[in-house]
Amino acid sequence: MRTTVGIIGAGPAGLLLARLLHNAGIDSVVLESRDRDYVEHRQRAGILEQGTVDVLREAGAAARMDREGIGHDGIELRFDRRRHRVDFPALTGGRSVMVYAQTEVCKDLIALQLAAGGPLLFEAEALAVEGAETPSPHVRFRHQGREDVLECDYVVGCDGFWGVARKAVPADVSRVFERTYPFGWLGILADVPPSHDELVYARHDRGFALLSMRSPTVTRAYLQVPAGTDAADWSDEEIWDELDRRLETDDAWTLKRGPVTAKSVTPMRSHVHEPMRHGRVFLAGDAAHIVPPTGAKGLNLAVGDVVTLARALVELRDTGSDARLEAYSATCLRRVWQAERFSYDMTTMLHRAPDATGFDDRVQLARLDRIATARSAETDLAEGYTGFPLD
Ligand SMILES: Cc1cc2nc3c(=O)[nH]c(=O)nc-3n(C[C@H](O)[C@H](O)[C@H](O)COP(=O)(O)OP(=O)(O)OC[C@H]3O[C@@H](n4cnc5c(N)ncnc54)[C@H](O)[C@@H]3O)c2cc1C
Q1: What separation in Å is there between the alpha carbon of 271 and the centre of ligand 1?
Q2: Which of 49, 232, 234, 273 has the fewest CB atoms lying closer than 10 Å?
Q3: How far is CA 16 from CA 20, 165, 280, in A?
């Protein structure tokens, strides 16, 4: 099998890249190790930055998002039983975010890819990427019990944190920067309308809580829990009680409870792999970097990477210039590190570390109070949350 761009992974990065290349008339093949149902139902991110929304619209993949997505013009911070709303458009010159689940983004992109004739192969596991430094890199993969080879001009590893593409970058070339946090997020989905019309980020002495939503009838909520926690150890009632405690305010706000339909724990880590390119092999999305979910950046960074890459490949085809392609890793990493910084700031401001002292607590509260009272600090949060510009 032969194609111009071989894409490993049908998460948001791989699917959007295939769509952008298709729109530009560049052929690609997507290999995905899992089946379609799994990819379409894996619960993950849900906040789309303004830039991601714009890209999905330009790519012709936004019809359902524009009908069903919920636009959000701000978030609420809770600390010390107080509430402070951050107004995004007022602070950023009109930017905002959209609540639309990653599962739905993937379903929309899969439908478009298959309608356009694919090729998108499910249950096709990439085993190795070879020939990165040659003009014809290739992917060895297994599909329907048979091993095959996908010959390409370029290979893009969109295969997430556990994928194989990163191994194509030799150990003596790659550098890894990482931080593992001593806590994770216990996340639930519940069949109950959201208790607040925007996301609520709460800092509490018992730990962080986030109140989010998937739709007008489905609540998504998270609790900070110690690393290694088993979701099964928490009953639904204990989760609601703990959310109630951490989200409590001095006014009459109340939490709406309902049947929990899904429950899982997400570990928290920051990870960056440099460079994001070796020869003709490129890394995009979680294959190259992970952020803790506090800043809602993971999916949006994946989108940023593939937009940069698609533009570079189009420029090469149209003008013969490989300047953008050569700059791919540096261009993406500048944005990635801004997102890592933002996510780190949000995480350390809102979560309680197991060894936190009274001093640490007071500094966290002072950081939140600064956002609530100084427009410069509040603007910095709003700009980071609504997203860093795409190149
Ligand atoms: C449990 C969890 C919860 C998260 N929650 C949030 C959140 O609340 N907010 C937020 O902003 N971000 C969140 N994230 C991060 C966000 O979902 C990711 O940043 C986003 O999915 C990145 O997209 P991607 O396409 O790069 O990678 P992925 O979505 O991981 O897609 C990679 C794809 O590659 C496939 N693959 C892997 N190996 C191979 C192989 N060898 N051959 C073929 N295919 C392969 C995988 O099956 C997968 O479909 C979460 C992530 C996880 C894991």
Answers
A1: 14
A2: 232
A3: 6, 18, 19
